[in-house]
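Feature request, filed as a ticket because there's no other form

It would be nice if the structure record came with a short human-readable summary line next to the tokens. Right now we just get the raw output. Example of a typical job, pasted below so the devs can see what we mean:
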Amino acid sequence: MNIKSLIKISIITLCASILFTSCGAIDLEFIKGEFTPTNDCGEKIRASDFTVYDALDNKSSFSDFKGKPAVVLLYGERYNGVTRDYMMCYDSAFRKYGDKVNFMIVHLSGLRNESKENAETLVSGLSFPAYYDIDNSAQYAYSVSAYPRTIIVDAEGYIYHDQTGSVDSKFLDKHIERVINGEPYVTEAPKRCGCRFK
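Raw output as currently delivered:
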């Protein structure tokens, strides 16, 4: 092996070592896991506003629901396996906490191959308020690339918890009660370069 090859291998090894030390082992659970986001300065992130439509095509914006914590579900009904039973978890949470927490259950209707009509059938008869992201406003506001996605927002309008992937009633109860009670942010996600999590 010549000297140039040895130098290249040494440089690659050094870079890999630095990356591993600063970031920790690569953990794919970060991608679909639960976390409380902060910016690079450790500051809380304010929830982005967006505008959606109800079944009668009346507009509603997230900013209309200030003053109480909020649960936002962004979902599609075609490819990600969201079922009636899954939606009933949110319906149960709404019936339990709806007087203390705003709920926005938002179908990503503007996405290709998603059907507002199918989503309406999925949520028919459930008690939570259902909305439809026809203009992709919510999708763009939260850069949605994977769903379902549950975003819990505190009463001051900051993101308290952000979860990509399926959740259950136990998860919803735990985090809704935490945000209602004003408990500190909690995260179960690993640290990553460029972002700090509490």
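Something like this underneath would help us a lot:
The CA atoms of residues 36 and 161 lie 5 Å apart.
Residues 23-180 form a domain with the Glutaredoxin fold (CATH 3.40.30.10).
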